[in-house]
Design a protein that fits this description.
The complex is a heterodimer. Chain A has 5 helices and no strands. Chain A is an all-alpha fold. In chain A, helix 1 packs antiparallel against helix 2, helix 2 packs antiparallel against helix 3 and helix 2 packs parallel to helix 5. Chain B is globular, with a radius of gyration of 16 Å. Chain B starts with a helix and ends with a helix. The chains are: A mainly alpha, B mainly alpha. Chains A and B meet through helix 1, helix 2, helix 3, helix 4 and helix 5 of A and helix 2, helix 3, helix 4, helix 5 and helix 6 of B.
Chain lengths: 114, 130
């Protein structure tokens, strides 16, 4: 199948899952942190587990790529800093990377065990 | 409008269409950008998608606290759908984890520094235009 179709289908499902998560959680910042860390665990698992190209495109590039978001995180961080909440902005930006990195390592360990 | 916002089917459909386009566009930036060799490297492709998406979402989110200049449907389709899916945190995190310490620090500094600056530029542009 055309790689763009695979990525597009995965992207549609990933974006819907992100929107659903945000609407169910009803908490700003926590929703973005949740999808980014969860998506990093899943992508860490996918890149280490034995998977074909189609799975990598649909589930990795498509689903995980769209489920997680950088732009929303960047807008939230800049808005926190703009509101004078510099400590919260720094904690959010640093915590996001640390948590995502731990997520990648956990996912990689799980994927390697498969 | 309130009924639309409270329902699930309409918003999910808009987010799905936007997510499909955003993810495919990101894939295109990463693998197919013609003539720009740097963008064909997955790491710079992700950086380019993240900075572009942050700039556009910054411009779109400008009026969030002021009023609803951008209607809800357009926010869902373009903001939550296209622009949030065009950018990615998981790919950025996985790619960074695979780099040596110096390149990893450079990649984080580039995505964070350029991404945040792009949001500010987008907000300024939207403020200047409105």
């Amino acid at each position: 199948m055309n790689p763009f179709v695979l990525v597009g289908i995965g992207g549609a499902v990933g974006a819907m899952a992100r929107y659903t998560t945000a609407r169910l959680l009803e908490r700003e910042l926590v929703d973005t942190l949740s999808v980014n860390v969860l998506g990093s665990v899943l992508l860490g698992l996918l890149v280490t587990a034995p998977a074909g190209d189609a799975v990598a495109l649909a589930a990795g590039t498509g689903f995980c790529g769209a489920f997680t978001t950088f732009s929303s995180f960047a807008v939230e961080t800049v808005q926190l800093a703009g509101d004078g909440e510099l400590r919260t902005a720094a904690l959010y930006a640093g915590g996001m990377f640390a948590a995502a990195l731990v997520g990648v390592l956990i996912g990689g360990t799980l994927g390697g065990a498969l | 409008m309130s009924g639309f916002r409270e329902g699930w089917v309409g918003p999910l459909a808009l987010v799905a269409v936007g997510g499909c386009l955003g993810a495919a566009l990101r894939h295109g930036i990463t693998v197919l950008t013609p003539g720009v060799a740097a963008l064909q490297d997955p790491i710079t492709g992700t950086l380019a998608a993240n900075v572009l998406g942050s700039f556009l979402l910054g411009a779109m989110a400008y009026d969030a606290g002021v009023g609803q200049v951008v209607p809800t449907r357009a926010r869902l389709l373009v903001g939550t759908g296209v622009l949030s899916s065009l950018t990615t945190y998981s790919t950025f995190a996985v790619q960074t984890s695979g780099l040596g310490p110096e390149l990893a620090a450079l990649n984080v500094a580039a995505n964070y520094g350029l991404g945040f600056a792009a949001v500010v530029c987008g907000q300024r542009l939207a403020g200047w235009l409105s």
